[in-house]
Protocadherin gamma-C3 (Pterocles burchelli), 689 residues
Amino acid sequence: AQLHYSVPEDREPGSSVGDLAKDLGLEVRSLAARNLRLVSEGGQWRFQVDLAAGMLVLYSRLDREALCGQSPTCSLHLQLVMENPLQLHRVEVDVLDVNDNAPQFPKPEVVLEITEVANPGTRLPLEVAEDPDMGSNSISTYELSPSQHFALGINVRGDGVKMPEIILEKSLDREKVAVHHLTLTALDGGNPVKSGTARVTIHVLDANDNPPVCDPPISKVQLEENVPVGTLVTKLNVTDLDEGPNGDVEYSFKTSNNAPGKFTKLFSLDPRTGEIRTKGPLDYEESSAYEIAVRARDKGSPAMEGHCHLRVELIDINDNSPEIVLTSLSSPVQEDAAPGTVIALLGVKDSDSGDNGQVRLQIAKELPFKLVSSFKEHFSLVTSGPLDREKATGYNITVRAVDSGSPQRATQKTFYLRIADVNDNAPNFSSPFDTAHVQENSLPGTFVFSVSAFDPDEGSNARLSYSILHNGMQDVPISTYFRIDQDNGTIYTVRPLDYEQDKVFQVPVEVKDAGSPALSSTAVVHVFVLDENDNAPTIVYPSVPKGSAFQQTIPAVAEPGYLVTKIVAVDADSGHNAWLSYQLQETAEALPFQVERRSGELRIAQALRELEDPHRLVVEVRDNGTPSLSASVIIVISPEENSVQDFAKSLDLPRSSPEDTNLTLYLIISLVSISLVSCVMFAVMAARC
């Protein structure tokens, strides 16, 4: 038979538990004859059979908390044996909880600290009281002694445990009250109610006014039962609004008298980062959940602390992750590698079997690579498109392996592939055409211009050298006029330049890299020679040998305004340096002649007296350069012998001699030639631009 009894834990020894004779349907007097006895090893010192009364009675006092701890049910199993005939009966005795234990706090006194600038609503967690009783006899609620600043709050943990905390209701002033003394009472739900108390001392301090706050304060994590040791369970999200040491949080486990050190043997806590990791193997059959309490304490003075509560629930799994093995890696790889070039050989393995051991590899689609299956569990990483080192000098390639288990497990491996440079980029000038100016007659070695080029390649492929090419436009090589520094591209003069000979030079510059094969590009620098006033005016009319005078006759009766002659001069310079002005050199006595400043016409300025002796004039021609250069001619003016006959000539210009006509023709030809050369030069420059 199966017999079931229940007995409160506080019954005295000898108390009746159940009527065996009645429940077994036997006569009391037959029990002794059939040798009724207990054979259960577990209950032989707690129960005995009263054969005279046929009752099952207590042998010793029962303590449910000692027998079953915190288990919600507490049953003791007995076996009854009778002979003649031999029979075995099973007896199950439920030990009922009695409110025989008062709540008790881990410490009789709790000392707390709170800053005086704490805001109302600030919470100070308290230690949970312990009550070995179960059900309604366990802790029901908490009470706090009256206070005008503090009130009591109660949170319910995931396993139903009530956690008291003190809530600041009114702002504090340490100068008025520095220490608050309160009494915390824990009440159970038994009848009669039992209680336990703890003294709470709260010190009000200055400064660090923001405690660490755990968000959320109570959280739950599900974890596979056989995860590797060191697996990250969670990282606590704790914030402290203070700065410096006041905001630097340290973490530690909170343990209680309930099960000191039980979860600390299975989990580790990083005091700096708040990461909780597995420390030992977890077994779902041993415990399906763990309650972890963490204290977050800052380094302020005084230190403030917050509390996080984590419930870790274990689940069952596909417990082996795939493993990626990098067998070979060809790094660096040339940027001109053809599509399909093998970059790396990869292997993958998974200790699981069936679908859990079937693994597929993946890489990011935007990479110019792809995975090709060589044979089972072996893959080749090959190029799938062109590579360009100038766009990407290398790639962080992440290979992800995913199995087909449920739930899936995945792992990834990242390696770096460097791209080697190929000389596939020619150097480029910053501008294909540049303009420079240099003064004529500059000393050899004068700086003219500096060209620059850029090559996106690297190493020797980007090491540049500059040189001047011969363009064939000048009669002599351009290198006889200019040279270039092959390292930095600076152009210098080789010899003095003559504006009157060459007004502009086209200097073709080539830049070449040191790659193999070498690549190059060219640019043209137009060097314009700036004129200097290095040529004195030349008097072309009247043309007389140096040191000689030009003889000119005029009618004796010539009136003011009469054109005596015209001085014509030219200057090989240009611009302001070729602007000419004419003037008479001053003499001791006033002369009745004047010369037009710009035209060079020499005329009679005032009525002549009897012109018996010749007049000797010096006409000076001066340019507008700096410094100014000049030339002069001596003109001797004398009267004509037949003045009446020649007087009519004063109304017209002197008739030109054949020599004067030839000179004028030469001047016209020169001007036309210079104009044609200038037009051709400008046309060439415009075409190049």
Remarks:
- The longest helix spans residues 658-688.
- The chain has six domains: 2-96, 109-205, 213-315, 323-415, 428-530, 538-640.
- The chain has a mean pLDDT of 83.
